[in-house]
Specification:
353 residues; 2 domains; seven-stranded parallel β-sheet; two-stranded parallel ribbon; 11 helices; binds NADP nicotinamide-adenine-dinucleotide phosphate
């Protein structure tokens, strides 16, 4: 591959995997920043083929976000610079992320990707997949993942402005599985709640009747990411993406309980108290990390701009109730782990919240 249409970081991750079929089905030649060898590329191509995309259009460029020039050799760097679109999804996500990893991978890595985009002569768009809770001001927690995503967001915006890079930023809500199949490679967040409910280990409802846990289907997000670049109007835009019609959490859990044939909890407990209980040991019994409750809130997000873009692109949002049912069925059927070892070993990885 001497020239490409799209350069993707995080292509081996949860969201990145769903993006690749979208791009390759448009005939785009895609290079993925890849940590690993030819076996990983072969696995990724097979995954793309199995998910309706064109694996033969995917190539891997060996590198690392944490290295100067993304660790790309001169030849690969030249290939990456032929891209018209750069999608930056790569990030280190985990609790207890070491500050130096957060800085090198998430913050400086994002700067490196922006520099690469700035040096690509045919560049039409850099798409940054940022964080969902950015609208809540300042530093949320002592969570280095969140802080590094906030820092990365600000630095990419500044750098893109200085270097004249056409930037589109997407802030996805908590991402769950595919809206048709429920398939996911991510087993924290929503899966934590579904698992606790399924095991009869969710005795309380975190939050009141007006709390919610917004869902976002991974396939819808991938479609939004790839197609938003078709609109000139999305240059400079920031889009909060989540399914606004997601019902309050008690209703959502009732739906899932019905689907799985288990009892739904009735007792409401404030989120802070529920988190305290989990931190004091209940986390082990429920299998629910306290941090998973970071997604349960009364917050609303400015989704109108994303809705306008979706309407302009004829994107149909999945019904969040159907999505909750379908994803829960997949999780239970696959015992809350990825079925066949494809992709990253994600089972047991905790949500960065
Ligand atoms: N999942 C969500 O609910 C959610 C919500 C809001 C925002 N986001 C953002 O969406 C993006 C993608 O998230 P995801 O859920 O797809 O994450 P994921 O499944 O953890 O994937 C992370 C990706 O980043 C790559 N990566 C990590 N460290 C790297 C490094 N040093 N050099 C090169 N690549 C590296 C991983 O490569 P390997 O396969 O080699 O590890 C993988 O491809 C992230 O920026 C995340 O912050 C996610």
């Amino acid at each position: 591959m001497s020239s490409i249409d799209a350069f993707v970081t995080g292509g081996t991750g949860f969201i990145g995997r769903w993006l690749l079929p979208e791009l390759t089905n448009e005939g785009q030649r895609v290079a993925v920043l890849l940590r690993g060898d030819a076996r990983r590329l072969a696995e990724l191509r097979a995954w793309v083929d199995a998910h309706g995309g064109r694996g033969e259009l995917v190539d891997g460029l060996t590198g690392d976000l944490a290295s100067p020039d993304l660790g790309l050799g001169a030849g690969d760097l030249a290939v990456a610079r032929t891209a018209r679109k750069v999608f930056h999804l790569g990030a280190a996500m985990s609790f207890g992320l070491a500050p130096e990893v957060a800085e090198e991978v998430n913050v400086k890595g994002s700067e490196r990707v922006t520099e690469l985009a700035a040096s690509a002569p045919r560049l039409e768009r850099l798409v940054l997949v940022s964080g969902f809770q950015h609208r809540r001001s300042g530093r949320l927690t002592a969570n280095r993942y969140h802080d590094s995503k906030l820092d990365a967001d600000a630095r990419v915006r500044d750098l893109a402005q200085t270097r004249g890079v056409p930037l589109t930023t997407v802030h996805p809500g908590p991402v769950v599985g595919d809206s048709s199949t429920g398939e996911t490679t991510q087993f924290w967040g929503w899966p934590n709640l579904v698992r606790a409910l399924h095991r009869g280990r969710l005795p309380i409802l975190p939050g009141g009747a007006d709390h919610w846990f917004p869902l976002l289907a991974v396939d819808y997000l991938a479609r939004f990411l790839s197609r938003a670049t078709q609109l000139d109007s999305t240059v400079g835009g920031q889009y909060w993406l989540l399914h606004e019609a997601t019902p309050p959490l008690p209703e959502l859990l009732n739906v899932v309980a019905d689907e799985l044939g288990v009892r739904a909890p009735r007792l409401h407990v404030p989120v802070s108290l529920a988190a305290l209980g989990l931190r004091s040991g209940l986390s082990r019994w429920t299998g629910l990390p306290a941090e998973a409750l970071a997604f349960v809130s009364r917050d609303r997000f400015p989704v109108t701009d994303a809705q306008h873009v979706a309407a302009a692109l004829d994107l149909i949002e999945p019904d969040p109730i159907d999505l909750a049912r379908i994803t829960a069925r997949f999780l239970v059927a696959h015992e809350f782990q990825y079925p066949d070892g494809h992709g990253r070993p994600v089972g047991g990885v905790l949500s960065p919240g």
